[in-house]
Design a protein that fits this description.
alpha+beta; 10 strands; 4-stranded antiparallel β-sheet; flat; about 160 residues; single chain
């Protein structure tokens, strides 16, 4: 067989296999509580949360490096307030714009305060004899993400 015949045969068989694939359609949950219970039943979850002005995709036991957080010490536990999305492999629940902190509870523990690598900036003006070297290390805070908890909603 020539190479063009092999390519043609492969493309036809791949199209046939793709069209025969089974599509599983799952029913969507009726309300938010049902969606949270579906996500809770999954083996692993993730969140998208805002921290220090940026959004991060986080999972339990992640180690997160953010720009230096003032007024926190090593060992302090922070509760993440701005959670934009909660999900698992099969389901995702997005807030508008955030999910209420009473529905999802995630804590982060301050592990250390550290500095980044040395950044060197060399400035020079030609023919003037002006040379300047600026060295800087940016400070960072490292956080360990705790487990994602879904407290039961309290009905009055």
């Amino acid at each position: 067989m020539a190479s063009w015949q092999i390519r043609n045969w492969l493309s036809n068989n791949l199209r046939r296999v793709a069209s025969c694939s089974v599509s599983t359609q799952t029913a969507l949950p009726k309300n938010t509580s049902a969606a949270f219970s579906l996500i809770r039943s999954q083996p692993s979850q993730y969140i998208v949360a805002s921290l220090a002005g940026r959004k991060y995709l986080l999972a339990p036991r992640d180690l997160l490096t953010v720009p230096h957080l003032k007024d926190v010490r090593v060992g302090d536990v922070l509760a993440l307030q701005d959670i934009h999305e909660v999900g698992s492999r099969d389901y995702t629940l997005r807030g508008d714009p955030v999910i209420s902190p009473s529905r999802v509870k995630v804590e982060a523990t301050v592990v250390e305060h550290t500095k980044g690598k040395m950044e060197v900036v060399f400035k020079k003006k030609r023919r003037k004899g002006y040379q300047k070297t600026i060295k800087n290390k940016h400070p960072y805070t490292r956080l360990r993400i705790g487990s994602i908890e879904f407290p039961a909603p309290s009905n009055p």
